Amino acid sequence: MATRKYFEKEIIKRCQNPKVNTNGYLLDNSQNLLEGVDIDLFQDDLMSGSGNELKSKFNAVFSSSALAVNNFSIVKKHLSQFNCFNYSNFNEAKFERQFRTGLEGTPPNLDFTIENKDVIIAFESKYLETTEKKEVKFVDSYSKKKLDYLDDMWFDLIKKYKNLKLYLDVAQLIKHSIGLINHKRQNTHQKTILVYLYWTPENHNDYPNFIQHNKELVEFEKDIKKSKDLEFISLTYNEFWEIYDDSYFDEHFKKMRNRYKIRI
Questions:
Q1: Residue 119 bridge partners (DSSP)
Q2: What is the pLDDT of residues 135-159, one digit of tens each?
Q3: 65 FRET partner, CA 20 to 30 A, in 124, 173, 178, 197?
Q4: Cβ 74 vs Cβ 252: under 8 Å
Q5: 17 CB contacts (<8 Å, ≥6 apart)?
Q6: What are the pLDDT digits (tens) for 152-206?
Q7: Angle in degrees, CA 96, 107, 143, rounded to 5
Q8: How far apart are CA 111 and CA 122, in angstroms?
Q9: Which helix (H) or strand (E) is 39 found in, with range?
C-alpha cells in the first residue's frame, strides 16, 4: 500500500518548477499559483479561516489548499460568467467558509462556496488526503437532543460510521452537511448542494488507496442521498474540468490539467 509520503515524493519529481526545494516547498505563496491567479482573490478568505493555510502548508506543490485556490480563484474573479449544475448569476463566493451546526466548537472549513438567491453550492476539495485512512470521530453532542432539527437518518449515519478508519473523510462530510442544513433553516428559499471534489492520478486504479476510497464513496453516496434537505454530488477534478471544455473558463482549466493531471 503506497503511503501519502510516496505520493508527495512522486508529485515533487514531476514538478517542473526549478524553485521547488527537495521537500516540495516553494519560497513564497505566489510561486505556487497558476498564471492569472491573484493573491487578492483568496488571501483574506484564507487568513480569516481556522486552517491558517497561508502560514504553513500553502507553499507545498502538493498543497490541497493551493489546489482549490488555483482551481476556483478564476471563478471568484469572473463569478457572473460561471454556470454550475445549471445555476448561474452567482453573486457571492468565498474560500474557507464555515457553517455552524448550533453546537459549541469550531466548525470545519469548506474549501469554496458560491451562491445566489436560489442555491448555495459548497465544494469540499481533496488532494492527497484520500491516500491515508482517518478515524471517523464525533463527540457526544452530535445527538438528537442537541440537534433536534435533523432527520433521524443523520444519527443513523453517525452510528454506522463512528470509529471506523476510512480513506473517505466521512466525519467531515457529515459535519459539513449538518452545517449546511442548519444554514438552510434561516434561508429556506435556497437549495443546498454539497460537492465532494477530489483529485486522482490518471492511473488511480493501480493503487489500492484510491480503489478503496472510491468504494467507500459509493457506499456513502447511497446513504447520504436519503436526505431531503441536501443534495450531494461527487466529482473527480478531471470530471470537473471536462464539464467546462469549450466554456469561458476552458483556458484556465487547461492550465489546471497541465499542472495536476499526472500519472504516478
A1: 191
A2: 999 999 999 999 999 999 999 999 9
A3: 178
A4: yes
A5: 26, 31, 61
A6: 999 999 999 999 999 999 999 999 999 999 999 988 899 999 999 999 999 999 9
A7: 150
A8: 8
A9: none
